[in-house]
Amino acid sequence: MVKNRKWVGVIIFLIVAVTIQAQRPRKAFRVGKTSFEKKEYIRAAGWLSIAINAGNSKYNTAYYYRGLSYMLLGDDSKAIDDLVIATQLLPQNADAPLRAARLLYEQEHYNKTLQYATIALDRDEDNFEALKLQALGLVNTGSAESALLTCDRAVAYGEDAELFYAKALASDSLGLFDYAVSYYRQAIETNKQYKLPYHALGKIFVRNGYLNKGIQVFTDAAKRFNDEESYRLRALVYDRMGNSQAQIVDITKILTLNSTRIDLYYRRALLYRKSNLFQNALSDINIYLKWDSLSYDPWILKAELLDDLHMDRKAELAYRNALELTEHPEEQKRIRKAILRINRESYPPEIQIVSPVGPDRNTIAIDAGKSEVTIKGNIRDDSKIISIQVNNRAIDFGILKTGKYVFSCQIQVDSVKSIFVTAVDEYHNKKVKEFNIIKAEKNPPKIILRSPDLKEAQTNTINTLQLTIQGTITEESTLKFVEINQKSIAVKSLGKGVYRFTEQLDIVKQDTVVIVAEDYFGNSIEKRYPVAVSDTISLKRSRLGKTYVVLVVSDSVDNKVLQPVRNHKDSLLQVLDNFLIDSTIVFSGLTKEQLERELLFKMTRLINENRVEALLIYYIGRGKKQERYSYWQMAGKSDDKRTWFNTSILPTVLKSYKSVRFKAIVSEAITPSGNMFTEVDECACPPCEQVSVFPYHGDFIMGIQTTWPDDYRSPILQYMRASVETKKGCFSFVDVINNTKAVFGTISGKKSELFPLILFAK
Q1: What is the pLDDT of residues 108-130, one digit of tens each?
Q2: How far apart are CA 608 and CA 597, in angstroms?
């Protein structure tokens, strides 16, 4: 009896298990379909997959609903697979082939589009959408006449932009220009958000020689859709018209929309060069070469650009890189000629005396009692040196390594005040260099501290966080260096052995001011001034972190002093002393090339070494505007374009300061050009004293156009002074923006938080 009960239990369990398994696909189909109707498409696809996996023909409809779910989830490939299967398994369903046809058309599979649109029409001959898709499939597979007949059938059921577009494509294919243009325009008028007819209309105009009409259509599309394709098509027309400037604008816009189009940097570099914007072209080709460094064409373009800019050494290196990447004999011959020309024109030997050393590269120092001295030196030249002479006497020399030659000889110095070294290379470039001889002396330099009034023997109480150290040094021979607290300081020679020095010193963590001076004979002096910060001084810092201000000043042109600019610089330095600034750096009287090196290389290193977090670059001077480009006038002749600093390099400057959280460029000279920043129409930033949380990063640019008349009043200086006088506590450029006609915006294009740099009062 017990045995029989056991088997009865097993049988009941098996019956229940089979029943549950049979119900599982039915439940999965029911739940999947319900989830689809509730627009829960991920859940629907999961349950419908269970029903499909059961392999029961009762649930063939699951393919249709799962295909729709995938379509609505944006997975077109899976959606097409399911809808194709549903078309085969559900012969009465007209929607499955119709949906498949639409997805296939969007993926440009026109033969299959035609196939499934025809199946949909076989099942529903009055379906307007199926007729449209059949027409589009026909015209894209070369059956334009049949497409027009299908369009005529569709008109009986309705008209929309896509039908007009299909008619236009068919007419275009048959060479019916007027009909095609008319239908394209009807498509656009019917639905202005339908992009395809814009591009097709522009193309047919261009193909038939109506270039300006084509440009207008592509311009309308670009304004409406702001898409990469519209700008690309317009750029192609501008290329055909030879309008390089317009092409540059469109390519720049495409790169803004799609930064991965590295190929366009090469294309734009060619256009910049064609427009004589060599620096812009060089910047673009450098970006391109980061991604493709093994192609000949970009390297030869870079070499030619550097050649155009007279950057001979870099040009030669680029030419040599290009030479390694081409096997074409004519190109190799052309490159070798260019390298030879550069060497002949610009590479005379470089001569240096390494022993005995002197106060500068043109002077050697010897003991007063010596009558004979051994001179050692080296010659640098990328080509071969064939002759070296010292005081017209040929001497032996050797080669240390490629491009570096060494020589040594003894000379009598009883009655000689200088020596002449002559070097000649294989291209007959000749260099003669004179070296003055000075006699050694034993007296150290003398330091006279003129400001502030510090005593050496006692602790000096300081009522400020920054000291302006000023003084003079007298030296019988030649001064070698001056250091203040282990930092090398530039000095200015006043003549007759007198030198002047000035330095801003942050004494927050300093307890002694140490000034050291040494001449070229090893005579040195050190002066120490103990200091202590007064208890009344608050040691607070800017909430933005370490802050640097860089003043780029162009206060003289053609050797004529621009006195208003110079006065403004002096006034600005005075008012900046009232704010929490860790360092103020002034670049004045530089050439364009010197300024580029300072901003791109020296400043980058200085910023990284000092962990600068906030940076203001402020230009004061004369500006120039030509077409779409703005220029700062640097040291040099006003009509010499090589002295103009193209402001389009400023985004590159800001990008090189990656570690700086808040950075700004202010030009009190000219409105910045539109190709360097995204202009913003208005600023609704909160007052800076109310800001408690700063954005993680920020960049900002502002331009105030002025021709610098004698009566010019700087709004920036005005609001800085007002911040100090009213004890506001801080200065924000928002004040200037809201009260002047300044043009302002950001490099990144973001409109929010336009206060990336605030100066906080001490």
Answers
A1: 999 999 999 999 999 998 899 99
A2: 16
Please, are residues 528 and 514 in contact by the beta-carbon 8 Å criterion?
yes
* CA atoms of 622 and 390, how far apart (whole Å): 48
446-533 folds as: Immunoglobulin-like (2.60.40)
Binning pLDDT at 50, 70 and 90, where does residue 6 land? very low
Q: Which amino acid is at 343?
A: N
Assign 594 to helix, strand or coil.
Answer: helix
Cross-sheet strand order for the sheet of 479-484? 460-462, 524-533, 512-519, 479-484, 487-488
How far, in Å, CA of 599 to CA of 105, rounded? 53
CA distance 410 to 114: 95
For residues 439-463, one letter each, b for 16 or more C-beta atoms within 10 angstroms of the residue's C-beta and e for the rest, the string is ebeeebbebebeeeebeeeeebebe
> According to CATH, where is 2.60.40.650 located in the chain?
350-439, 446-533
Phi, psi (degrees; rounded to nearest 5) at 738: -75, -10
State phi, psi for 244 to the nearest 5 degrees. Answer: -65, -40
Residue 243 has pLDDT above 90, yes or no: yes
- In the three-class reduction of DSSP (H, G, I as helix; E, B as strand; rest coil), residue 394 is classed as strand
Q: What is the DSSP letter of 603?
A: H
Are the C-beta atoms of 620 and 553 separated by less than 8 Å? yes
Confidence of residue 508 (pLDDT cuts 50, 70, 90): low
Instruction: Count CA atoms closer than 13 A to 221's CA, side-chain side.
Output: 27
- Binning pLDDT at 50, 70 and 90, where does residue 681 land? confident
The CATH number of domain 547-760, selected from 3.30.565.10, 3.40.50.1460, 2.40.30.170, 3.40.50.300: 3.40.50.1460
Q: The dihedral of CA 131, 134, 136, 139: what is its sign?
A: negative
Q: What percent helix, strand, coil does the chain show, rounded to 5?
A: 45, 25, 30
Question: Distance between CA atoms of 739 and 163, rounded to whole angstroms?
Answer: 54
CA distance to 340, 344, 377, 390, 619, per residue, from 422 (Å): 22, 17, 12, 6, 44
pLDDT digits (tens, 9 = 90+) for 88-113: 999 999 999 999 999 999 999 999 99
Residues 6+ apart with CB under 8 A from 642: 592, 636
- Which residues are registered as beta bridge partners of 663? 615, 699
φ/ψ of residue 716, rounded to 5: -65, -45
Q: Please, where are the H alpha helices in 90-160? A: 95-106, 110-123, 128-140, 144-155
Contacts with 597 (C-beta within 8 Å, 6 or more apart), sequence order: none
Maximal CA-CA distance, the chain: 138
> Distance (Å, rounded) from C-alpha 182 to C-alpha 69?
39
Q: What is the location of CATH 3.40.50.1460 in the chain?
A: 547-760
pLDDT tens per residue, range 682-715:
766 666 666 655 665 677 888 888 877 877 888 8
The whole-number pLDDT of residue 13 equals 34
Supply the pTM of this predicted model.
0.45
HSE on the CB side for 581, CA within 13 Å? Answer: 25
**CA pseudo-torsion sign 694, 695, 698, 701:** negative
Which residues contact residue 359 at a Cβ distance below 8 angstroms, ignoring those fewer than 6 apart? 365, 438, 477, 478, 479, 480, 519, 520
350-439: CATH topology: Immunoglobulin-like (2.60.40)
Structural contact between residues 761 and 579, judged by C-beta atoms closer than 8 angstroms: yes
**What does residue 318 show for φ and ψ, rounded to 5 degrees?**
-65, -40
Helix axes 110-123, 76-89, angle to 10 degrees: 40
Q: Which of 266, 259, 304 is nearest to 285 (CA)?
A: 266
Q: What does the DSSP 8-state code read for residue 579?
A: B
Annotate 159-214 with DSSP letters as a single string: --HHHHHHHHHHHHHTT-HHHHHHHHHHHHHH-TT--HHHHHHHHHHHHTT-HHHH
